[in-house]
Amino acid sequence: RLQPERGDLALIRAQALERSGSAEAALRAYRRLAELPSPPAEAYAGQVRVLSAMGRTREAARVLATLRARVPEAAGDAELVLLLTEAEAAKRSGRTSEALAAAERALSIAPGNVDARMTLAGIYAEAGRHDDAIAAYEAVLASRPGDPVARRGLAGALFARGVLPKAAALYDELLIADPSDAELRATRVALSG
Predict the structure, then answer these.
(1) Over the stretch 144-154, which tens digit does the pLDDT of each residue have?
(2) Is the pTM of this model over 0.85?
(3) How far is CA 141 from each of CA 6, 20, 30, 98, 169, rounded to the nearest angstrom?
(4) Residue 39: enclosing H or E segment and its boundaries?
(5) Alpha carbon distance 132, 127 (integer Å)
(6) What DSSP designation does 155 have?
């Protein structure tokens, strides 16, 4: 059992394990921290992040509920991580309405979060909601102008919406940055003919 005065060092160790990609070890370290008489909120938030990254979202949701009950003001960031993980997982498995709900909830928690907006843009694009995707990608690019993923997403949404001159110009810019990208080149050729 950890001594309370060693809690700070244990937290630093857990965070270092998480950053290094040692998910199981980080999870064990965060769980040990949660056993302290007065555990820091990060003991639970760290578990939510690690479990989400491992795809164990149900378990992450249970830990999030504990965090909410113990330290409600600290739950927002952890909830955001979990919602974005759930949105991506639902998107990958074709559950578009679930993906949209999770991403929209994430954005409602953190309206300025660029990652949440980027996730939502991708879901909109895959759902065929091209105008919404364009608006979301443009909002991402307002915060991160050079983001290649957002620029590529915007180009694809513009192409799908039929805004071909603007899509072609974006594809040209993307090809200048990465001339060896065969998919970009093929799409640009399709726009030409």
Answers:
(1) 998 999 999 99
(2) no
(3) 43, 29, 35, 25, 16
(4) none
(5) 10
(6) H
